Known about the structure:
With 174 residues, the chain is an all-beta fold. The protein has 1 helix and 13 strands.
Amino acid sequence: MRALKKLGAVGAASGILLMSAAVTPASAMEEYSVVRNAWSDQCLEVADWRMDDGAPVRQWPCHGGRNQQWRFIEMANGHTAIQNRNSNKCIDAPGGNYDNGTQLIQWDCHLRYNQQWLVMYSSEDPQAEISFWAPPNNQVIEIGAWSQTRGAAASMWSSNDGLNQKWNTAIVYG
Length: 174
């Protein structure tokens, strides 16, 4: 697997234009993407358009709203923070807890390890599914129990290479 260097498009979410595009690290700082679970085909979002620290990150049917748009912030150490467009907060493993089943939240972006991810492609194809790995212990972001239920939490789990742990991204224009 290789680290994130390009974001591939997966299609259109209702009401917004999504296109395939390669991005450089500099432009990745300015672009937002929707992140769609490969198993459930639902998008990663901050629940209920919340703006507060501690709001849950979950899956929901894709609508392309700002609470479903994410910016990938590449850091000098090769890790990536994932920032929500609506709240400007980052996906966070609360308290640095990476135990199986830990539900992810948003928190002010401080860019410490519990907000850093390795973004890895499943193949060399730039439109391949990606996984988000937590560097300290190699847990990944998943939708638990292979849920296809709207509102199911995004959580940490040991990698099993399942589709519930893989994601597709599409850059949002506009």
